[in-house]
Design goal:
single chain, ten-stranded mixed sheet, two-stranded antiparallel sheet, 12 helices
């Protein structure tokens, strides 16, 4: 049965407050102009772009510096310009502006062609009130910029197979794209909070999805799957959660009507978590909600061997996307030249491909990263005992990629996702 978009989609509450629960209004969703059935660019191809850089916290400034150097070399080689303006987000924004995502940063991002984010957070701010924590700034950015679709590739590179904790025969050839809905679900559902009931504290959050929120992420996932291997696995918990039953129904309707050539399957989230470890090569593209996607995409990243190798893209209906490595700020090694900049460099490649219509240039960055690994250079997080490779720091790794960008030969691989 088709469910009206004005109906209550589903609620998972930590409190039994059904009698007093007020259904929140549906989120304001603009007509889906940018990515209705295809992943189109935020801006057309140009000789000059403006991007916002958000170095953030911890190792963020170090990997940002390395990435700026690489992008500079790429622009020189390929004859175009990227103007880079730096803004504040996360802990440093709290320290300087008492706001984890200041309004001036939001406006800078909106006025840019794209946004490149390093990482946020650290022990220093862990005990702050919720509104003054770095992660709150990240959630605010996603909501204010309408970044509802998160793409997280997990591709095992031949040079790093032995860095994975799984057996070679399990991970060799793995190439998975996780498409995660980013602005709904339990992270944004209302009401939420910690109250007192019957003499004790009780915490509650609500898992809520409206039909149109599911439709738009399903279309993005269908488009991604159609450009990859043509297989899409939708992950839910429909055997328990009403919200997941709606998710399954809507995804099925969208893919069957708009992407008939895509092979759609469904899997419960607990089974998907197990199957990602048991036999990850069965997956090509996965689509799921916010909280399940948060967990599964981190799990998928470990197939590769290190969080330091994986980029991500967060895209909206229009305007700039945000591109960032999926790893954290690693405050314990900040300032020690131990960070791995490759995930942020690969995030810059995703920015070039998805926002700036520079697919050929994205391929140059990706090839340079593979070549630097072929040269046997490794940062600490991907260095294995007795692997015969050279241990390098963040700065030296960035310099090595920069040199390769100037000379590497690569065929334009277009816009394959």
């Amino acid at each position: 049965m088709k469910i009206s978009s004005l109906s209550l989609v589903a609620v998972l509450s930590g409190m039994n407050t059904a009698s007093s629960f007020v259904i929140p209004s549906p989120p304001s969703l603009k007509t889906f102009t940018r990515r209705t059935t295809s992943l189109s660019m935020a801006v057309p191809k140009s000789d000059s772009y403006t991007i916002t850089l958000l170095p953030g916290d911890g190792i963020g400034p170090e990997i940002t510096s390395a990435t700026k150097q690489v992008l500079g070399a790429l622009c020189t080689r390929c004859g175009f310009e990227i103007k880079m303006n730096e803004g504040l987000i996360g802990g440093i924004a709290i320290d300087e502006k008492n706001d984890p995502f200041p309004d001036e940063t939001l406006e800078m991002c909106r006025a840019s062609d794209s946004v490149l984010l390093a990482c946020i957070g650290g022990y220093k701010w862990d005990k702050n009130p919720r509104e003054l924590r770095p992660e709150t700034g990240l959630l605010k950015m996603r909501k204010e910029m309408g970044l509802f679709a998160n793409l997280r590739p997990a591709k095992v590179l031949p040079q790093l197979i032995d860095a994975s904790t799984l057996k070679r025969e399990i991970v060799e050839g793995v190439d998975v794209m996780v498409v995660r809905e980013l602005t709904g679900d339990v992270y944004f559902g209302e009401p939420k909070g910690i109250d007192e009931k019957d003499g004790q504290r009780v915490g509650y959050n609500n898992m809520i999805y409206y039909e149109n929120e599911i439709e738009r992420i399903a279309r993005v996932a269908g488009d991604v799957a159609s450009k990859r291997g043509g297989k899409l696995c939708s992950v839910d918990k429909a055997n328990v959660l009403d919200v997941s039953q709606l998710w399954r129904d809507v995804v099925t309707d969208v893919i069957s009507s708009d992407f008939p050539d895509v092979e759609l399957s469904h899997m419960y989230v607990d089974n998907a978590a197990m199957q990602l470890i048991r036999w990850p090569k069965q997956f090509d593209t996965m689509v799921t909600g916010n909280i399940f996607g948060d967990i599964l995409s981190d799990e998928a990243s470990m197939l590769v061997g290190s969080l330091g190798m994986l980029p991500s893209a967060s895209l909206g209906e229009s305007g700039p996307g945000v591109f960032e490595p999926i790893h954290g700020s690693a405050p314990d090694i900040a300032g020690e030249d131990l960070a791995n900049p490759l995930a942020m460099i690969l995030s810059a490649a995703m920015m070039l491909r998805y926002d700036l219509d520079r697919g050929a240039e994205a391929s140059i960055l990706e090839k340079a990263v593979e070549d630097v690994l072929d040269q046997g250079l490794r940062t600490k997080d991907i260095k294995q005992e007795e692997d015969g490779c050279k241990l390098v720091g963040c700065k030296e790794m960035g310099e090595a990629v920069t040199k390769l960008v100037q000379n590497v030969d690569v065929l334009d691989q277009g816009l394959r996702t």
